[in-house]
Amino acid sequence: MTAAPAEAEGRLADLATTRKITAERVPRGTEPDPPETNTAYQAIVNAFNQHPGRAFRARELHGLLGMPTDEATVNVTRSRLGRLVRQGFLTHPGRGRYQKRT
Questions:
Q1: Could you report the per-residue pLDDT of 82-98, keeping only the tens digit for each?
Q2: How many Å apart are CA 78 and CA 71, to the nearest integer?
Q3: Which of 41, 48, 50, 85 has minimal Cβ neighbours within 10 Å of its Cβ?
Q4: ∠ CA(6), CA(8), CA(14), 5° rounding?
């Protein structure tokens, strides 16, 4: 029972050491890139909010958003759309079509 807290404390010490070494290796004055304010998910959600009654195919959504329409990129968007369906934000009214849940 006492081994778990000791092990956790050891890991925390290792993390603190790693953080210190990383901070020393990063050149001064370099800031990390700011997080994207408009992620791909947010762009997709915004498109469905602007057209709540419309059903989209992934490729049509790419055209609307000005995103690349190569097959790999469209497949990533299909995956994102599937997640939004599972989360309950979108519905899947037909094969390959997605619509905002009303």
A1: 999 999 999 999 999 99
A2: 10
A3: 50
A4: 105
CA distances to 4, 13, 14, 17, 99 from 10, rounded to whole Å, are 10, 5, 6, 11, 50
Residue with tokens 């759309």: 81
Residue 61 has pLDDT above 90, yes or no: yes
pTM of the entire structure?
A: 0.61
Q: How many helices (H) and strands (E) does the chain have?
A: 4, 3
Q: Using CA atoms, how far apart are residues 100 and 89, in angstroms rounded to an integer?
A: 6
N residues, the chain? 102
